[in-house]
Amino acid sequence: MISHLLLDALFVLAVSLIWFMLAWQSVLFFLGHRYYRISRRRPGPLPDSELPPVSVLVPCHNEEMVIASAIEALLALDYPADKLELLVINDGSTDRTAEVARGFGSDPRLRVLDVPSEQAARGKASALNFGLKYACFPVLAVYDADNTPEPGALRPLVEELVRDPRLGGTVGVYRAMNRRRNLLTRFLNIEGIGFQWILQAGRWMLMRLGTLPGTNYLIRRDLVVSLGGWDEGALTEDAEMTLRVYRAGSRIKFVPVSVTWEQEPETLRVWMRQRNRWVRGHNYLLRKYARSLPRMRPRRIGLELFYSLWLYYVFFAAIVVSDVLFLLGFAGLVRISVPGPYGLVWLFAYVTFVLQLVTALASERDEDTAGNILLVMLMYFTYCQLWIPVVARAFWDDFIVRRPMKWAKTDRFPQKTRDSALNTAFRAAKSPGQRPGGDGTFS
Q1: Average pLDDT, whole number, for the chain?
Q2: How many beta carbons lie within 10 A of that of residue 195, not counting itself?
């Protein structure tokens, strides 16, 4: 009797937790879709005279494969040349990263900064802090070395910052350049679109909360200095900086018209290492801020930290319990005696998951295809389940064996050709009178 009661209680608890998360996601989904429609209506561009100068920081550690494309794209940004400097931070590279970057040395906007060997290869936050010392301008832009932003990516981020002094930063959209390379990159493309059009857009509409994504974002230099720079102990320095920006009384706005294209992991090994770093980075935040969570102001920051805890552990634990009980019940080893239409409840949850992602895909041009819809239908049973061992491994590393945290750089892959959508954007930008469209493409 006790075992049956325990199984029944676990089942009801798992279903309740899963549905709580789905309900929250549904709220963000509807608000995110509304923000998509609102963001398409943009005011006219500011004149060049009202734009502040910007220092672009690009931390690099062994980026020989991709740095040339990044520099080429950054130097092609639609921004006044006399108000832009590009700082390529060579963070202890042992390949030809610095040599390739210096090959663009004829452009006066570009400087290559070599981190001293005794300070090198300590992680992205350390490289950014080194670049901060040499940044001359009041606005900082951060791009990863594998990024090729569209020409119109920077200007709308700056314009939003100028129009609203309450903003400490602005963030754009990142898209998967190699999204058609294999099954994994196709899943990652869908995941990225869903995250941005549901969580980023939805949270901005609901709470005026945006989170720094690690690339394609602006932040005021004096704010970074006042906060003491980026936290070099954080594996996810962007998420950690987000918390401190809001605690300082500023906001971060999601600006979807700004688009950059980046590489996604193309192998499962690289993906798992990257995601392990992400989860461990959030574990660091939980440890750093857990005691102050009940008193944290503004309250939406405490809610965001609680959401991370809920997503990575409570929700995934509920998924594991649900999966195990489903398999055991299917094999006839256990029987759930709690009455209710649980098959119908599960089916409705699955349909909700699919509809949310398919609607998010419709926010980007040419993404709501039959192939992508089929992938969304398969995603819960395949890609989403891969997160369970990632979260379990991160929990083991941080809370059981307390393995020291070490920055793990994401492996790059040869950048053979630009994605066709990116080529279209670059061609459109060269035509007179073209402006970025609200769906992240040019029109």
Answers
A1: 87
A2: 15
Who has greater pLDDT, 56 or 352? 56
Tell me how many degrees the CA angle 157-152-368 measures, rounded to the nearest 5.
95
What CATH superfamily classification does 42-292 receive? Spore Coat Polysaccharide Biosynthesis Protein SpsA; Chain A (3.90.550.10)
Q: What share of the chain is helix, strand, coil (3-state, %, to 5)?
A: 55, 10, 35
Question: Which residues, at least 6 apart from 348, have a Cβ–Cβ distance to it below 8 Å?
Answer: none
Q: Is 224:182 a contact under the CB 8 Å cutoff?
A: no
**pLDDT tens figures, 297-317:** 777 777 777 776 667 777 777
Q: What pLDDT score was predicted for residue 342?
A: 67
Host H or E run for residue 168: strand 167-176
- Report the sign of the C-alpha dihedral through residues 417, 171, 216, 247, in that order: negative
Hey, is 144 helix, strand or coil? coil
Report the SS3 class of residue 84.
strand
Question: Which amino acid type is present at position 405?
Answer: M
From-to residues of CATH 3.90.550.10 in the chain? 42-292
Phi and psi at residue 442, to the nearest 5°: -95, 145
Q: With 50 as the cut, is the pLDDT of residue 1 above it?
A: no
Give residue 360's identity as a one-letter amino acid code: A
Q: How far apart are CA 309 and CA 303, in angstroms?
A: 10
Q: Which two tokens stand for residue 199?
A: 């969580």
| pLDDT number for residue 431 | 39
Say if residues 285 and 234 touch (Cβ distance below 8 Å): yes
Tell me the per-residue pLDDT of 397-418, one tens digit each, with 9 for 90 and over.
999 999 998 887 888 887 654 4
Structure tokens of 195? 């995250």
> What pTM did the predictor assign?
0.88
